[in-house]
Design a protein that fits this description.
three-stranded mixed beta sheet, alpha+beta, 2 domains, elongated, Ribosomal Protein S8, Chain: A, domain 1, GMP Synthetase, Chain A, domain 3
Length: about 180
């Protein structure tokens, strides 16, 4: 098994591609050992010295290290844990925890929110997923879209640029009611 690794705009996050599906749908962001208890793989990764976060996408795993961590030391251990996990055949999520993963949001009765969700799904999520992250819609209030940046996007030095020059610009292009996009993270 070969685990491909890609850099992300966040120097503290790397994107690991196991060459197979990770999540059947949605995403899962784990930023603590308590969060990681939902997944045997995440628990193993979070137990590594210097690992601060694990994020599952459809076909990738983003791992975030502490700012003081060194990828030359951490990366081989992450790759080995991912490889061992997939070779073991163990389940990614404990059955009762699967329901806690972030599946796409329910449809709103508000047509503007439905438009926002459609733009996020079709135009924004694919781009941030390429960088090892995700965005979660929180709310739309008085012309402001509130999002949570997740995975490699959380804490990324380029997140502000992505938010204002990328996401906000796309939102305003497709939805005139949107005046601003704000990250709650």
């Amino acid at each position: 098994m070969f685990i491909q690794t890609e850099s992300t705009p966040n120097p503290n996050s790397l994107k690991f591609l196991p060459g197979r599906q990770v999540m059947p749908q949605g995403t899962l962001d784990m930023r603590s050992a308590n969060d990681a208890a939902a997944s045997p793989l995440a628990a193993q990764l979070m137990a590594l010295d210097g690992v601060e976060g694990v994020f599952y996408g459809i076909d990738f795993i983003s791992v975030t290290k502490a700012a003081s961590g060194d990828w030359t030391i951490i990366k081989p251990h992450v790759q080995a844990r991912i490889m061992d996990f997939y070779m073991s055949g163990e389940v990614l999520l404990h059955p009762m925890q699967s329901a806690n993963s972030e599946a796409p949001a329910e449809q709103s009765s508000d047509p503007i929110i439905r438009e926002i969700m459609a733009v996020i799904e079709t135009h924004i999520k694919p781009g941030v997923a390429r960088d090892g992250g995700d965005v979660k819609f929180i709310e739309f209030d008085q012309g402001v879209v509130y999002l949570e940046m997740r995975g490699a996007c959380a804490g990324c030095p380029a997140a502000g640029i992505t938010l204002k020059s990328g996401i906000e610009k796309i939102m305003k292009t497709y939805i005139p009611e949107v005046n601003e996009v704000v990250s709650i993270t």
